Amino acid sequence: MPRQTTLTGYPTSGGFARFDLRRMGDLVCCYSTMNNITGDGFNSLNLTVPVGWRPPHGELPPVLMRTDRTANEVVLNVDTNNGYKITYYSGISTVNTYHTGFGLWKTHDYL
């Protein structure tokens, strides 16, 4: 198992989740509220990625993140034409949306 780090962010002025890990040095967590996906939104979100991972050529592979309020999972994938594709799994319901705005938070390594 690779070492893990947790990236924590808080809502910006609105929109949907977005993560931008294309920066060298510390990994960065970028996202805003996801009210239009979940229906009720949430106040924080944790993203787990391998420590020391760096994306090749600015590409972002799929990562798994989990909300702090429910056991629902969100899978983040890249859509090069429309920004980042968010797929939200809630029971048998799946909602897709796109967003290009973002806010920045530095990483917090809890190891």
Give an account of the 3D structure.
There is one protein chain. With 111 residues, the protein is mainly β. It has one domain (4-106). It contains 1 helix and 8 strands. The strands form 2 sheets. The chain has a 6-stranded antiparallel β-sheet, with no helix packed on it. The chain has a two-stranded antiparallel sheet with strand order 2-8. The chain is globular.
Unreliably modeled segments? 1-111
Q: What strand line-up does the widest sheet have?
A: 1-3-4-5-6-7
Structural class: mainly beta
Mean pLDDT across all amino acids: 35
Give the strand tally: 8
Amount of helix: under 10%
Strand content: 35-45%
Distance between the termini: 14 Å
What is the domain total for the residues? 1
Shape: globular
- Can you count the helices? 1
Major sheet, described briefly?
6 strands, antiparallel
Order of helices and strands: EEHEEEEEE
| Radius of gyration using CA atoms only | 13 Å
Describe the secondary-structure layout.
Layout: E1 4-9, E2 28-29, H1 35-38, E3 45-50, E4 63-67, E5 73-79, E6 83-90, E7 93-99, E8 105-106
Antiparallel strand pairs: 1-3, 2-8, 3-4, 4-5, 5-6, 6-7
